[in-house]
Amino acid sequence: MTTLRLAWLFGRRSVSARSTVILPVVAFAVVTALLLIVAGGAQAFFSWTDERAGLYQVLAVIALSLLVVPLVALGGSAARLSARRRDDRLASLRLLGATPGLVTALTVIESTALAVAGAIAGAVLSLLLSPLVALIPFRGEPLGTSILLSPVWIVVAVAGIGALAALSAVVGLRGVILSPLGVRTRQEAPRVHWIRVLITAGVVALVITAMSVLQSVADVGVVIAVFAVGFGGSIAVLNLIGPWVLRMVASGQARRARTARRLLAARAVLESPKAAWRQVSGVAMTSFMAVLAGVGIALVGPMGDSVDPSARELIEDIRTGVLITVVASFLMVACSAGVNQAAAVLDRRDLYVSLDRIGMPVREMNAARSRAILSPLRITAIGSAVTAAAVVFPLTGMSLLLSPLTLVMVAACLTAGVLLVWVALRATRPVLSRVLSEPSPSL
Amino acid sequence: MTSAPVAAPPALSATALTKTYGSSTALAGVDFRVAPGESVAIMGASGSGKTTLLHCLAGIVTPDSGSVSLATATGPLEITTLNEAGRSRLRREAFGFVFQQGLLLPELTAIENVALPLMLTGTDRRAAEQTAAMWLAVLGLAGYESRRIGQLSGGQAQRVAIARAQTTGAAVVFADEPTGALDSQTSAEVMDALIRSTTDRGRSLVVVTHDESVAARCSRVLRLSDGRIVDEVSAR
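^ Those are the sequences you sent over. The predicted structure of the assembly is below.
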């Protein structure tokens, strides 16, 4: 009862700070809506039973694998936001002698409540959008009502989002429970070990070997399984190598920085390369696959009438699928960046006010904040796209000659995605302006 | 203590300042002046208007009426007529600030924190860090340049904040409860550092404090109550 009463008191207090409640709720709503829409699309693919259905199902699994990372990142951002908002108060509670169980319970109750509220809103949003999603054409006709999920799956999704929030809250608060002082003082920058590079190289070699023997396998189920494991492995190693790459690049940027905004942005990435990576990691696989698929479509596309109608339909469908995946991926990354940045401004309210006091122009603060996200995003998007282009280098050249439009479209999608994230970051500017304009009694 | 009229021309002066927040009067006609090399402590109970006075003097907020004038090489500059960008530039170039909690950037090293205000004025980073290193050495922090703020003690962090307030050669340094979070011995050391780096070098120091021992280190003490100066005495 004491725990519930304390949770209620904490919750009541946070209602006054509206943005700290609204932000995670909106983020969870976006996560749930996109999750249900994507799952609905996949359900439509898996409802087909003809001979071409297997190929579409493989493509659906690939698209789902690509969207899992940004989805989890956005869910994690929202969960950490709702948990981190209370870090200080919870750490203070720990210092006053509250048990780890009480601290964990308070956080889990609050984070889960916000997540479930957002998830319900997201489920409603996905239902409202379903008439539009049903119009998306695959195999020459709109997807139709086959995208509608049963209420059981919607309840499972809402419960899953709640569980994800609870888990993120528990993981995020381990530091508070283990060492309340450590969380409050942020003594040392986290390190990212180079051993990650070796592990990455090993896993990449394994995945390439698995993929190369795939053509001799006839069973569609095995192919789907190998693809899923291959993508899972690739995503796992990307998460290993990504933070290391961002840390190395940011170290160089911090050393070379000549202006305050560049120095602050690089140091912000170095403060937590893993957090910086989490925000943009979804874009890595999406960019990689978008370029590979783009090259493939560009090569096959110009064959025109020599290609049979069903193959042409497949090419069109892959093009549609790639575009939807890239857009959804960037949409989630943009939401995640917006949520994280708004949370960071609110978390560091006193610090931003003090920077304003010492005369740092607001445009410099905003530029540093944007750069801290856009720089890793550019590195990730361009790095992955260039790597993919390099892997299929001779084909890239040919596809540029045969059908430059498709590759231009993929490049335009990636550019639009970066712009979308920039817009999301711009949307957080009023949060900073409001923080600076509110009179602070202690400053 | 005796009344001590200040004869030297002021580095910063204010006349008839008023400021209200809603129905609450924070300042009700306050006059103020601080000369180069002089330190002034502003004391008073919570809500007496001392932080509002500091904010008006530093161009952080604009008073409802009254004037604030800063002596510059080209003549007096009326701060209340400047727009937000102008006041921001003034704070960057002419003023230094020390806050109660230091409010340093935890992800930056000590030397980067101190160099930051200079970099904001457009100074090259190498030159800014040379100046920063000099100030860290002056304040007894040589060898701590690469430490992050979380790796410093409270007193060391506050000396980094004092160094940050000095790098641009600020004519006036404002300190808001600079020793509020420190024990008495560290508090004395920090005040030594603050006095040594400001008034001893001909700069002006304005300190908002609750601590009588901090006020006793200043040239003058102003006491505020309900937005008015009710007492003004020389402290040493």
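DSSP finds 18 helices and two strands in chain A. The interface with chain B takes residues 185-189, 257-260, 263-264, 267-268, 270-271, 350-351, 354, 356-361, 364, 439, 441-443 of chain A (CB under 8 Å).

Shout if you want it in another format.
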